[in-house]
Amino acid sequence: MGDSRGRWKTAARRFDQVIETIAVSAMVLMTVIVTVQVVTRKLFNFVFFWSEEITLLLLIWFSFLGIAVGFRDRLHLAMDSLANRLPKAVNKALDVLIALSTLAFGAYLIVYGWQFTALMHRNTMSATGWPSSVMYVIMPVTGVLVCYYAVLHLLGIDTVRHRDPDEGAGS
């Protein structure tokens, strides 16, 4: 069982690396596009017609991937002053409840994100002519990622990559 869990963890970490690479690439590309847009506007009085739209698309994708990474690393808002005073068994039950709530949120993103994406598919983005659904399909994708991380948490497979140095210092 331990070897199987180790393989799952290794596979999950590789998958995480892909997600983080996509997110970081979106941020870098967004920075390059905005920089080029500012330079061409100020120096040459010229703007690429697609730059603002693509930048917005990259920002949305980066932000939603950040939501998934935040759930993976358990970086979202938590009030643990009461939980730290409770017995370990109660904390374990709370961890399961949090993972189940996270799973429900991920399912919500999948269902309603997909419905919204389908609704927006007929509309087009003005500069690129792409369907608007390109901008919104990241919602159900993020939902799948959030559910994936919630299931890993429920199975006890720790994929946290970025830990707060002070985390657990009070325990």
Backbone shape: elongated
- What is the rounded distance between the termini? 29 Å
What is the succession of H and E elements?
A: HHHHH
Structural class: mainly alpha
Strand content: under 5%
Q: How many strands appear in the DSSP assignment?
A: 0
Figure out the total of helices. 5
| Low-confidence sequence ranges | none
Helix content: 55-70%
Main sheet overview:
none
Whole-angstrom Rg: 20 Å
Average residue pLDDT: 87
Key phrases:
171 residues; mainly alpha; 70% helix
SSE inventory with pairings:
Layout: H1 2-44, H2 51-72, H3 88-120, H4 133-136, H5 138-154
Helix pairs in contact: 1-2, 2-5, 3-5
Short description:
This protein is mainly alpha-helical. It has helices spanning 2-44, 51-72, 88-120, 133-136, 138-154. Helix content is 70%, strand content 0%.
How would you describe the overall organization of this protein?
It is a single chain. The chain has 171 residues and is mostly helical. Helix content is 70%, strand content 0%. Helix 1 runs antiparallel to helix 2, helix 2 packs parallel to helix 5 and helix 3 packs antiparallel against helix 5. The radius of gyration is 20 Å and the shape is elongated. The model has no long low-confidence stretch (mean pLDDT 87).
